[in-house]
Amino acid sequence: MTVAMLAPLMVAYEIRRFYVHQVEAQVPDFLRELLDLKDIGMTLQGAVRLISESKIGLLSSELKLVSKDVQWGTSITSALVRLEERIGVLVIKRVISLIIRASEVTDYIRDILIIAISDMEHYLKMKRERYTVSFAYIMIIYLSFGIFLYTAYQLNVSFISSFEKLNTNIDISGNVLDMFRMSIILGFFSGIMAGQLSAGSILSGFKHVIVFLVAAVVLFAYVL
Q1: Same domain, 157 and 83
Q2: Is 26 in contact with 56 (CB distance < 8 Å)?
Q3: Are the CB atoms for 142 and 186 separated by under 8 Å?
Q4: Segment holding 150, helix H or strand E
Q5: 173 pLDDT more than 80
Q6: What is the number of other CB atoms lying within 10 angstroms of the CB of residue 173?
Q7: What is the dihedral of CA 6, 135, 146, 188, to 10 degrees?
Q8: What are the tens digits of pLDDT across the range 113-157?
Q9: Using CA atoms, how far apart are residues 84 and 78, in angstroms rounded to an integer?
Q10: Euclidean distance between CA atoms 38 and 53, whole angstroms
């Protein structure tokens, strides 16, 4: 039941996360192409239209919408504002806003573009480093949950089962049920913690929660 509730949220979040990741990774290439085209004297409107025809990934489709807005009579600045609203990512909003404000003041935005490229590359580098550091902690969380499941298995298969030979009054089924409940609670909060560490979002932890809960169900429902 819990897995069925979390699965749609997990899928929606991961699709959005993949989209954001792809667009963020393509922004430096967009800015470099924009810089090159501005260096040869092309207008911002013409440069965006030309870049939209190139294949730089998901961002190309967004830039094509910008070009269509301009063709329908929208100003380039208004079209770019719509772009940042559609994408809805803070770091991209900052870059687009910087370009818009600079272009409203002067047509020479080379220095602004260089700063934007450097800022975006630094952001992506920090994001990769954070993931690298958090990966070790995620592995520790998985290892800890795996140890818990292995301990539960050994207790119920080897340790507690040995008491049956001594004719002691131990409720084995009740013990299994208690451990199953503990594994559900531990799996849920361990998954949330893994998501918070890796991406700074509880929603990112739903995929880990699903893995932990499925592992617990398999062990206690089909193995023990």
Answers
A1: no
A2: yes
A3: no
A4: helix 110-154
A5: no
A6: 10
A7: -30
A8: 999 999 999 999 998 988 888 999 999 999 999 999 999 888 877
A9: 10
A10: 16
| 12 shares a domain with 47 | yes
Structure tokens, 35? 């810089």
Q: Which of 65, 58, 93 is nearest to 79 (CA)?
A: 65
Q: How far is it between the farthest Cα atoms of the chain?
A: 91
User: Which domain range does residue 37 map to?
Assistant: 2-108
Please state, rounded to an integer, the average pLDDT across all residues of the chain: 88
- Residues 88, 143 share a domain: no
Find the helix packing angle between 44-52 and 2-39, rounded to 10°.
130
Rounded Cα gap, residues 222 and 173, in angstroms: 14
For CA atoms 72, 78, 80, 83, give the dihedral sign. negative
Contact 188, 214 (CB under 8 A): no
In a domain, 86, yes or no: yes
Does a structural domain hold residue 89?
A: yes
Angle of CA points 78, 115, 121, to nearest 5°: 100
